[in-house]
């Protein structure tokens, strides 16, 4: 059992699936207490039970301000403080610019980008009370690279990096703010993303082959980077976007 996050308290959004779930597990294994956020009540309760007394689950929609206020309040009331935000909630909003429904564009931007603003808005006053606090945004290589049928997703991820850098400037030196940019990671979101292509299974296979390491990433790969970036091991890193993509060499 590690102790990199002993006595720390984190909120992890997107915690009921994929990378968010792996990050929550890693944080608890390394000593943190965690408030889990997600929409799937069954999966959230199951994960909280698995993680034990160090975890609580609150279901809700991260694009709604009052829900984000509740997450912060729950962390402070139950665990006494707040040290870390791990922001992983995301949806795809698949469709070209001409085909995409306006409400899908709006929902994607609200879920992927506005949620970062909202939770940070309510969490920052608590984070400022704790030395070594940090905000970690799970962005994507889609912030840099273009993918067919993903305009809302790409735009939201690029926006999340701009917001990360701005908050790093605004709240230094008391809060470190960083981002991760994962490439093709074997999660449900990747398989959903592949549906934008004519042959989804082939698209997933090609995604792994397009990396220098010739495989898809694992959620645990990203969780390892997340643990480093929120720990004291990364105490001199802020305003940075770390690419973790197996050396992806093309779009």
Automatic annotation (TrEMBL):
Keyword list, A-Z: Oxidoreductase
The family this protein is said to belong to: Belongs to the short-chain dehydrogenases/reductases (SDR) family.
PANTHER family per the UniProt record, alphabetical: BLR0893 PROTEIN (PTHR24321:SF11), DEHYDROGENASES, SHORT CHAIN (PTHR24321)
One Pfam family, short name: adh_short_C2
Native source organism of the sequence: Maribacter confluentis
Listed EC numbers: 1.-.-.-
One Gene Ontology term of the molecular function aspect: oxidoreductase activity
Keyword match Oxidoreductase: yes
The protein, known as: SDR family oxidoreductase
